[in-house]
Amino acid sequence: MRPILVTGGTGTLGRAVVHRLLSRGCPVRVLSRQAHTPGEHGWAVGDLVTGRGVEAALSGAGTVVHCATTNGKRDVAATRRLVEAAGGTGVSHLLYVSIVGVDRVPLGYYRAKAECERLVVESGLGWTVLRATQFHDLVLRVLEGLSKAPVLVVPRGVAFQPVDVRDVAERVAELAEAGPAGRAGDFGGPEVRPVEALAAEFLRARGRRRPVLRAPVPGGTARALRAGGNLVQPGGLVSAGGLVPARPAGRITFAEFLAERFPA
């Protein structure tokens, strides 16, 4: 079995993907800009933005799981370098992890992700694109920042479907082993929750007392979020208790994630 090269293997998702692949008995090689001591898996030193060491890292690999991410043009440049290098090294499957709503929410970061998807689709390689909703870790970081103020202000009428990175990693590992699947079904968390409910849950877990204020937010991004552009199951009413999607993919809820992160 040829090794699976994981880009971004030291990041939030990448670490979990590497763990799941190893638990399945897959040989794994992780691309990093810095040298590491070999352990359970191999390492390859390379830089996707400059292209340094990328062809050598791809040598002998059958599948590439592209979890690496940066900002805007650098993200697109890195993906272009990877696609160009992979085309001449015998890679048979390129799996790209993207975000639900990149074609519906007009954020610059999302536009870059959509462009990366296009590069993968047009690469000439066997490909899979998996879009996932926002990770619990991201929602937590945002709420941590917002809660530093005396009042925690959230956008009115917006809901999220946060997903645990371990659930996403399990799905990525399945797809990596299965072979090219094209556009895979979007992957979201087990619950759609209004942002104020997530904020209240966060405050309870952290033992903090803050009023939660819902404020109207103008602009196209806010309109897209209110319309459910960031959800696997867009549209419909979301109650304070949360709406369970018809086909939830993730298993770990935001409350369960918080309970693990901040045990009583």
Topology diagram in text:
Blueprint: E1 4-7, H1 12-23, E2 28-32, E3 42-45, H2 54-58, E4 63-66, H3 72-86, E5 93-99, H4 108-121, E6 127-132, H5 136-146, E7 152-155, E8 159-160, H6 165-178, E9 182-183, E10 193-194, H7 195-206, E11 212-215, H8 220-226, H9 254-261
Parallel strand pairs: 1-2, 1-4, 2-3, 4-5, 5-6, 6-9, 7-11
Antiparallel strand pairs: 8-10
Helix pairs in contact: 1-6, 3-4, 7-9
Explained architecture:
The chain is an alpha/beta fold and 264 residues long. It folds into two domains: 4-133 and 165-183, Rossmann fold; 139-159 and 190-261, UDP-galactose 4-epimerase, domain 1 (Alpha-Beta Complex), CATH 3.90.25. The chain contains nine helices and eleven strands. The strands form three sheets. It has a seven-stranded parallel sheet with strand order 3-2-1-4-5-6-9, sandwiched between helices. α3 links the parallel β4 (63-66) and β5. α3 packs parallel to α4. The chain is globular and about 55 Å long. The chain starts with a strand and ends with a helix. Residues 8-137 form the NAD(P)-binding domain. This is SDR family oxidoreductase. It comes from Kitasatospora phosalacinea.
